[in-house]
Specification:
The chain is of the alpha+beta class. The protein has helices spanning 17-36, 65-72, and strands at residues 46-53, 61-63, 82-93, 96-106, 113-125, 128-141. The protein has a single domain (17-141), classed as Nuclear Transport Factor 2, Chain: A. It has two helices and six strands; from the N terminus they run αββαββββ. The protein is globular.
């Protein structure tokens, strides 16, 4: 299976309620793990060859679940103590499962507010959906970027 594509045995060109629920659950798991402050098994969220692109925020473009896990292992900062992801919308485009959602976070030290968008592509690993590509796009920010804070 090529990155971002889905085999016909997965869903083909038919988006199911089960796919939508699984994406919503995966987005919730991402938030819970990111906010936990502990070392986590990020293979539960990301495909082994996943990418996490934070360049629009002044951050890095991480490649592979090991790089992503190392980034989250930094704790807070650079990560907010808690954030929410809302308004997930899931669709199938050219047999690729995608979603977009809005994130909101407040830094626990500076109280900087960040609002942005996650754009995700999913694939299956071990029979479960995993994020293959996540791109973060800022929409509204109060406070310095990650690079301005020396965290990128």
């Amino acid at each position: 299976m090529s990155p971002g594509s889905r085999q016909s045995s997965d869903v083909g060109d038919l988006l199911t309620i089960a796919d939508i629920v699984e994406v919503h659950q995966l987005i919730g798991l991402y938030c819970a793990l990111a906010d936990s402050g502990t070392t986590c098994d990020w293979t539960r969220v990301f495909h082994p060859e996943a990418s996490l692109d934070m360049t629009a925020l002044g951050g890095d473009h991480l490649r592979g679940v090991a790089e992503i896990a190392a980034f989250f292992a930094l704790g807070s900062p650079p990560h907010p103590q808690a954030h929410q992801t809302t308004n997930p919308y899931v669709w199938l485009e050219d047999s690729v499962l995608r979603s977009t959602s809005t994130y909101h976070s407040i830094d626990r030290v500076s109280f900087d507010v960040r609002v942005g968008q996650y754009d995700d592509i999913y694939t299956r690993a071990g029979g479960r959906l995993r994020i293959l590509r996540r791109v973060l796009t800022p929409r509204w920010t109060v406070g310095p970027s990650l690079s301005e804070r020396g965290l990128a």
